[in-house]
Amino acid sequence: MITLLRRARQRALLFILLLPLTVIAQKQAVTSKKIVFMENAWQQALDMAKKQNKYVFVDAYAVWCGPCKMLKRTTFKDKEAAAFFNRNFINVAMDMEKGVGPSLAQQWQLQAYPTLLVFNPQGKLVLYTVGFIQAPDLLRFGKQALATKAK
Questions:
Q1: Taking the model in full, what pTM does it have?
Q2: Are 54 and 109 in contact (CB under 8 A)?
């Protein structure tokens, strides 16, 4: 019983400490000139998506992947794409070779990198694309994913 109370207090304290960071990150995302990603935080992104009723945009990458680096240097820094994704999605970048990455890669049946995925707030895959894409194509991809909300 004492152990359960300690765990509950620890979780409450952690929540209280992390909440301001979440609010700051969200404010930065709205004004940022690039897509703001949570790093390697799939479960936290999913939790935020449920609370905010937003879709999750996942950049599934590997550190050695050239097209992945090109996405980060160009497409994800496009002002229009950044404004759209930061406003409409919880964005998370996942190194698919670290932490929970390998198990998620297997679960999501990923074959190549980069793979860009969109999940609904319940964690169900809505849409994905594989490979490098330009900012206008990324915007179309995001809008197509959001259009599934209406169905």
A1: 0.79
A2: no
User: How far apart are alpha carbons 42 and 69 in whole angstroms?
Assistant: 20
Find all residues with CB under 8 Å of 82, minimum gap 6, and list them. Answer: 32, 33, 34, 35, 36, 76
- What CATH superfamily is the domain 32-150? Glutaredoxin (3.40.30.10)
Quickly count: other Cβ atoms within 10 Å of residue 23's Cβ. Answer: 10
Q: Which of 69, 66, 63, 72 is nearest to 135 (CA)?
A: 72
Residue 15 and residue 148: Cα distance in Å, rounded?
32
Domains of the chain, residue spans: 32-150
Query: Which long-range contacts does 8-13 make (Cβ < 8 Å, 24+ apart)?
Result: none
The tens digit of pLDDT for each residue in 99-141 reads 999 999 999 999 999 999 999 999 999 999 999 999 999 999 9
